[in-house]
Amino acid sequence: MSTPPRQKRLTPADILALKGNCPVVSLTAYTTPMARLLDPHCDFLLVGDSLGMVLYGMDTTVGVTMEMMIAHGQAVMRGVSRACVIIDMPFGSYQESKEQAFRSAARIMKETGCDGVKLEGGAEMAETVAFLVERGIPVLGHVGLMPQQVNTSGGYRSKGHSEKEADKIRRDARAIDEAGAFAIVIEGTVEPLARDISGSVSAATIGIGASPACDGQILVSDDMLGLFNDFKPRFVKHYAELAQVISKAAEDYAGEVRTRAFPGPEHTFQPRPKS
Ligand code: KIV
Where do the catalytic residues lie (predicted)? Predict the structure, then answer.
């Protein structure tokens, strides 16, 4: 199976051009079949490092590796024909220096064929973002609640409640914008702050737990599909209840196997009549 031709899919520049025109639609995707299902409806798909928690059951995203991101990035690329694809840079692959970030980002782009990378961080990452953009790598920034910093930032709590914290997030977004990011994810911030940032940066802002005034929205697909019974943060809306659907299907299957109702004659191969 080959990757569809590049020119048919949206680019980071197309995503930026939607700012002020039409809200950007984005979801996470980690596999080929899911990418195929989401592709017709989304402007960009994010191969998020949330896959560490969603697919691999990790407690945080800190343990996610380059190899995991590249393997899932390749899988998603095989499933898209319209959406732009952005891949998260995992923790430890870019924070050390701008040169390390370039090496990691270039590897992700070359080995997957994706359209750009995402990295978390504010003012402290601005020089790195500019370094990548100047060298041909489109960057999606990520400010506010930054899951890779969960060990130093006091956990998964919403941000920007104090004026000091709000000011820092504002400065972070401005720095990443000035560094040339085509878009910036704003995660888990108080609503007026996300609204304010969206109106003051030239990059497209992509909200998650942020504001309807952002230039677009993103959710983790598995969250919005209702695949987790025990996890529903305030910012997630369920557009389906797949956990129930899957449990019921598994229960029905188990019942039919135990009563020998499955497989039926239509599911078995009978010997061909002898000629
Ligand atoms: O890793 C991820 O899926 C993300 C989104 C939630 C924005 O960063």
Answer: 187 (proton acceptor)
In a domain, 272, yes or no: no
Answer whether residue 6 is part of any domain.
no
Rounded distance from Cα 146 to ligand 1 centre (Å): 9
Ligand 1: nearest atom to the Cα of 61: 1
Residue 120 assigned to a binding site: yes
Q: How far apart are CA 126 and CA 119, in angstroms?
A: 11
Q: Whose C-alpha lies nearest to ligand 1, atom 6?
A: 220
- Nearest residue by C-alpha to atom 3 in ligand 1: 48
Over the stretch 12-50, which tens digit does the pLDDT of each residue have? 999 999 999 999 999 999 999 999 999 999 999 999 999
DSSP category for residue 138: -
Among 67, 99, 127, 187, the active-site one is 187
In a domain, 201, yes or no: yes
88 lines ligand 1 (CB under 6 A): yes
> What's the pLDDT score for residue 6?
53
Entry pTM: 0.95
Concatenating the DSSP letter of every residue in 221-263 gives HHHHTT--TT---TT---S--HHHHHHHHHHHHHHHHHTT-SS
Full domain range(s) for residue 215: 12-267
Does 256 participate in catalysis according to the annotation?
Answer: no
Task: Determine whether 46 is exposed, middle or buried from the number of CB atoms within 10 Å of its CB (0-12, 13-18, 19+).
Answer: buried
Can you give the CATH number for the domain in which 108 is found? 3.20.20.60
Residue 59 lies in a domain: yes
Given a cut of 90, whether residue 154 has pLDDT beyond it is no
